[in-house]
Amino acid sequence: MNWFMRWFHRFGSPVWFYRIAGKWLPWLSGLFLLLFIPGLYWGLFVAPTDYQQGESFRIMYVHVPAAWMSMFIYVAMAVCAAIALIWRMKLADVVLICSAPVGASFTFLALITGSLWGKPMWGTYWVWDARLTSELILLFLYLGIMALYNAFEEKRTASRAVAILTLVGVVNIPIIHYSVVWWNTLHQGASVSKMDAPSIHVDMLIPLILLGLAFQVFYVLVLFLRVRAELLDRELNTGWVRQLALEHDDD
Amino acid sequence: MTPARKRRLTMVVLLVAGVGLAAALMAKAFQENMNLYYEPHQVTAGEAPVDHDFRLGGMVVDGSVRREEGSLTVQFDLTDYTDTVTVNYTGILPDLFREGQGIITRGRLNQSGSFIADEVLAKHDENYMPPEVAESLKKAGKLPDGEAQ
Lengths: 251, 149
Known about the structure:
The complex is a heterodimer. Chain A is an all-alpha fold. In chain A, helix 3 runs antiparallel to helix 4 and helix 5 packs antiparallel against helix 7. Chain B is of the alpha+beta class. Chain B has two domains: 34 residues; 104 residues, CATH 2.40.50.140. Chains A and B meet through helix 3 and helix 6 of A and helix 1, strand 6 and helix 4 of B.
């Protein structure tokens, strides 16, 4: 437990995080390209066409990872909210608010791609079923979190309000996931995360997994960039930022 | 953990649990409205509304699709493997519409108990596979039919 608490405290230190995140950036960029390019090529050109949907099914290679990320990022934000409220860790606040626009973008992407796929396949761009509606509510939650944060002049107050709103909204996540099980919907059930074998052919599944991982790495990459910028902005008057500025003056 | 942190942890847990309970109660209260469509057995049991539009979902019965010559009018049977309702529709059907496919239609019942649809949507299932695999599964008689569970 001791090593964990030490790591936990060090992780909460802005200086340490700024430096470590900076070192990770090139590695994350490389890893992202390594997953994204083969995944996209495999998904769009190599994977076989679907027996019913033909080529249209390929939109899932953007839609499904984007939808996964829309929920994953929200859960990550909720964890940050709990840490920020209980332990008053400043870094958790920063990670929370820096994640919100990324999560909102993925949610928007999932909704748009789903809608474009829905027109030829279902016969409609939109239907108010439980899955589509709860995903739209998720987009509003992200936008609400961003709006609430900007409504406060003082960042400490803003962070606390945002953390509470994030925790309130987390109830939507299981609703999105189980909506296709609990109620009858137009949206189909899960293909990959079923307990038995996935009901998707392996040649179609591999690029999906690659792109899922690529989107995950992309989130961490963008998050690190945003958090570093936000940390500099917040800690403008502290010693370590001044020192950093001096180091760069020497260059 | 310090007492202050313990107190805040309790608050966080209570907040999430409270909101979860509220959402569960709301979902329970709106249970019927949360479902997108009625199933054929609900229609025969008289649970579906008679005087206004509703959605009906089910599987298109094999061999039941009859097209009218020279028009877009089509008639087919929808089943949930318990009961069957006949649907009449005039218009363009979605790409995925076929016999044995799960679909959702919007419209209302007429006097004779058949369903007059204004809109037909195809419900895609969660199975993705290349045509060759589908073909060999079909030969083995193991092709998963739609969303039937």
